[in-house]
Amino acid sequence: MSYYALVPAAGSGARMGGEVPKQYLPLLGRPLIHHTLATLCAVPAIAHVFVVIAADDGEWDRHDWSALAPRLTVLRQGGATRAGSVANGLRAVAGRVAAEDWMLVHDAARACLAVSQVEALIRELADDPVGGLLAVPVADTLKRVGDGKRVVATVPRDQLWQAQTPQMFRHGPLLQALEQCPDAVTDEAGAMEALGLAPKLVAADATNFKVTYPFDLQLAEWILRSRSVP
Ligand SMILES: Nc1ccn([C@@H]2O[C@H](COP(=O)(O)OP(=O)(O)OP(=O)(O)O)[C@@H](O)[C@H]2O)c(=O)n1
Ligand SMILES: C[C@](O)(CO)[C@H](O)COP(=O)(O)O
């Protein structure tokens, strides 16, 4: 049984704005996604990293990936949704990955992931019957909004966590779950839950956040500099 990483990177970054998809925006002198992929390639337990880009991605070939090459394969199999990109990627690697092998699905946009966080996920879930994901407990009071941006309720947060990635599930069950789920599912755990399974949460921290809006790039740079990333 082996561990593989699958990185959905076929999004357009609409909430970031601009012409260049956010995964290719410069971060400490490299495309943002280079940090993500380098971290996953640095995890000894991960046998290989697959990255799923859009079929018409015009940015990938403009960058140098040679430092990661032995452990990285690019798949031009992006889909219309994140779930579609992940399912396409899982199908594309089915001949190379066994059904019982673990797939760590990680957002390209979570560029501040630390090797130690990946290793904590693997350590916690290696013998788990279902799999699970990195997550953090909700720290803010949550409001449900109604018309006119008026609060209609305060949502009890004592059992609410924010899902992150990697999300770690076995290849066979995960592909089956995604194929049975509508594209609207927003993470791999949601597809597994739809089958009645209960993924396990592994506590991470806010540094593993998803770069989504313009200010997030500055936050990501600060976090990486604080780890003295070259
Ligand atoms: N059709 C899609 C949509 C998203 N993603 C990937 O899924 C991750 C998380 O999605 P998100 O942060 O929403 O990225 P975008 O869809 O690019 O952002 P936006 O929603 O602002 O357009 C990203 O690494 C993105 O590249 C993907 O592979 N295929
Ligand atoms: C997978 C994810 O990062 C978990 O929080 C999140 O669901 C991705 O959502 P997005 O809208 O595709 O960024």
Q: Could you please say which CATH topology applies here?
A: Spore Coat Polysaccharide Biosynthesis Protein SpsA, Chain A
User: Got a strand count?
Assistant: 11
Which structural category do the helix and sheet elements fall into?
Answer: alpha/beta
Low-pLDDT stretches are none
Computed over alpha carbons, the radius of gyration is 17 Å
Site (Transition state stabilizer): 15, 22
Pathway: Isoprenoid biosynthesis; isopentenyl diphosphate biosynthesis via DXP pathway; isopentenyl diphosphate from 1-deoxy-D-xylulose 5-phosphate: step 2/6
Site (Positions MEP for the nucleophilic attack): 157, 210
Catalytic activity: 2-C-methyl-D-erythritol 4-phosphate + CTP + H(+) = 4-CDP-2-C-methyl-D-erythritol + diphosphate
Summarize the entry for a quick read.
Keywords: Isoprene biosynthesis, Nucleotidyltransferase, Transferase. By secondary structure, the protein is of the alpha/beta class. The protein has 6 helices and 11 strands.
Produce the secondary structure layout.
Layout: E1 3-8, E2 26-27, E3 30-31, H1 32-41, E4 46-52, E5 72-75, H2 82-92, E6 102-105, H3 115-125, E7 131-137, E8 142-145, E9 151-155, E10 161-170, H4 171-179, H5 188-194, E11 200-203, H6 214-226
Parallel strand pairs: 1-4, 1-6, 4-5, 7-11
Antiparallel strand pairs: 2-3, 6-10, 7-10, 8-9
Helix pairs in contact: 2-4, 4-5
Bound molecules: cytidine-5'-triphosphate and ligand LQXTBERG.
Residues 8-15, 23, 52, 78-82, 85, 107-109, 210, 212 line the site of cytidine-5'-triphosphate.
